[in-house]
Amino acid sequence: MPGGSRARAIATLVLVGAVLCAAMLLAGQTVRSMLRLEAESSAGRWAAELARALPDIEAIAGGAAPAEESRALLDLSRRLGAVYRYRLHAPDGSAGLSGGFAPGTVPAAAIGEREPKALAAMLAGRTVVRLAEGDGIREPTLRAEAFVPILQGGRVLALAEIDLDFGERHAFYEARLGRLVLGMIALIALAIAVPGAAFYWRTRQKQVADRKIAFLAHFDSLTRLKNRARFAAELPAALTRASESGQGIALHHIDVDRFKDINDTLGHDAGDEILRQAARRLVGLAGPGDIVARLGGDEFVICQQAVRSRVDAECFGRHLVARMGAPFRVRGHDVAMSVSVGTALACVDAEGASERRQRAAADAFVPAAEVLVKRADMALYRAKADGRGRHRLYAEDMNATLTERLAIEALIRRAVEHDGFELYYQPLFAAAEPELRAFEALLRLRDGRGGLVAPDLFIAIAEEMGMISEVGHWVLRHACREAAGWPSHISVSVNLSPAQFADGGVSVLVRSALAESGLAPERLELEITETVLLHDSEHVLRELEQLDMLGVKVVMDDFGTGYSSLAYLWRFRFAGLKIDRSFVMALDDGNDAIASVVRTIVSLGRVLGMRITAEGVETIEQAERLRAMGCDRLQGYLFGRPASASVAARTIRRHDAPRLARRARKSPDSAVA
Ligand code: C2E
Ligand code: MG
Ligand code: MG
Q: Distance between CA 498 and CA 464 in Å, rounded?
């Protein structure tokens, strides 16, 4: 409980306690006043009754023996009322008759000596009442001692000293008033406590909400790391400290690669769990004074302090990539992911201390916080563009890269909105005899300056922007429509991005593209890379089975460049396998090991009943070697570059006439590749 609330609660308790005591005191006094009044009235009535009923009262008070009836009346009056003993005195104070005293307890002294004040009051015609407590055995627990003058026509006939037993009355009143007081106290307490409790509860709620708001203003609720705002607030101070102390700073901007895929395939809860674990891992990797923050989404930063050299920062950056690449355990599964890291430096230079002094004032040496952040950001873009899962240190030429990327993003958006993509088609030939078998549809985006944007680049950016499914759908529909116009023995290959599988429903899209175009399913080939099967392969395999059931051929593209996990080849019956261009190029180096790898891939394909295509064939020598190694199809610049649909149509016409002529000469069997 905070200090203010505690003090208020204690003050309330003290107040309630004080009210309770005061109420008890007041109740006690009220009871005694009431008893005194009652005693006065009872004693007065008793005396008046005696004066009326005892004709010899004056004589009795003077010491004469009472008449028979008078004694009987006196005894009766003592037994019936509250009066349990009395003493009658003559007006001069001398003792007359007494009743109800235990033997030997009648006060010996005359009333004038014992109670001079009471005597004076009685002679003046007034009654005096006093309350006295007793032990409850010999005397009642409470008695009223009343001194009453017995008057007749204003003349004092006698003086009565009467004791009334008020033990029961007292207990009765106390119980009644006690209950009343308790009830009142309860009401008062309720009146204080209910609003008090409500106020306390509201205050607590507000404090909790305030604390939450304060936390959220500075920290990220998912990972509990500092948030972007807090990081932005702390970075300038860190830079100032660094420039004053001469110790360097490295800002590492960390981004999880293809985090959208993880979210899409494993679900957002698993994605959140990975981010939490990633945050904990980053905190563990950071040094004691380093700032670790989550900028949002899958982006983190570490502001590394006391960096001695550029090598220091690079080592740490690479270390981050390596350590963050170790699998995360989520719901009993190991989930592997990679991160890209971009690093920018402040107050660090490679030249040494003397140079440092000369450059101390230069912008490049102590950049403003925003500049440092922008540089780390650019280095991160470079790390991503260079293939992800790597570290890059900021260099001056990276500025242009970022501008270029933003321009490409704008081009993609415009192309999606205005149907601005184009499809090029690259021919694939049967290896045994150069017969046209298929075209691979390859997406093109114009750069607005008469050139084309590199597909590898803009497709990766479209994936990161989350737009690849829309783009992929467009490609599928256009490629099927184009191929439907080709001769029926020529197929079309369409590349599918892993992100399209993550979004799900690929088979539905394929079925609708086939239905829309009228293309026979066996004339459509879909090229996927191994990365498709990296995450949640069960879900992907189900999708691939669906495609297989449609009659479409699924081909493993770029085989040999990725993880090349042969397990994938066993788990799904791929119709074909495309050996990556890098192997074909490596063959030229005369590397025997590469040649035997290619031969192994070919024989593996044979065993699994797959058609083997070699990509990137540029020379006749390459074509001959690959043919000799047993490849079924060849694709590359040697046979034709990717070109527009009209060029593809011309290629078909050029190759179809001789084919038909050959076919007429040869047996039909030889045309099967
Ligand atoms: P890929 O599927 O492996 O496509 C083959 C790439 O190799 C194409 O590059 C093609 O132009 C190039 N190539 C073909 N023969 C030769 C050769 O003899 N020498 C050399 N040096 N290169 C050759 P491109 O068109 O730049 O496409 C690059 C990648 O972009 C493709 O690789 C594919 O992964 C991706 N891509 C292209 N279109 C699409 C698409 O519609 N959807 C998806 N998801 N990815 C696509
Ligand atoms: Mg391909
Ligand atoms: Mg390929």
A: 12
Write out the two tokens for 280: 């904990």
Highest mean pLDDT among 4-18, 397-411, 454-468: 454-468
- Rounded to two decimals, the pTM is 0.53
**Among 584, 633, 575, which residue's Cα sits nearest to residue 433?**
633
Question: Which of 495, 579, 588, 622 has most ligand 1 atoms within 8 Å of CB, for mutation?
Answer: 495
- Cα 598 off chain centre by: 51
CA of 411 to the centre of ligand 2 (A): 23
Three-state DSSP at 267 gives: coil
Count other Cβ atoms within 10 Å, centred on residue 384. 21
What tokens were used for 562?
């990725």
Question: Which protein residues touch ligand 1 with a CB less than 6 Å away?
Answer: 426, 442-443, 455-456, 459, 472, 475, 495-497, 527, 557-558, 581, 615-618, 635-637, 642
Query: Within a 13 Å sphere around the CA of 370, how many CA atoms are in the beta-carbon half?
Result: 0
CB atoms within 10 A of CB 432: 15
Q: Pinpoint the alpha helices (H) of 431-484.
A: 455-465, 468-483
Q: What is the pLDDT of residues 349-386, one digit of tens each?
A: 644 433 444 444 444 456 788 889 989 998 998 898 88
CB atoms within 10 A of CB 41: 13
What does the chain come to in residues? 673
pLDDT of residue 565: 62
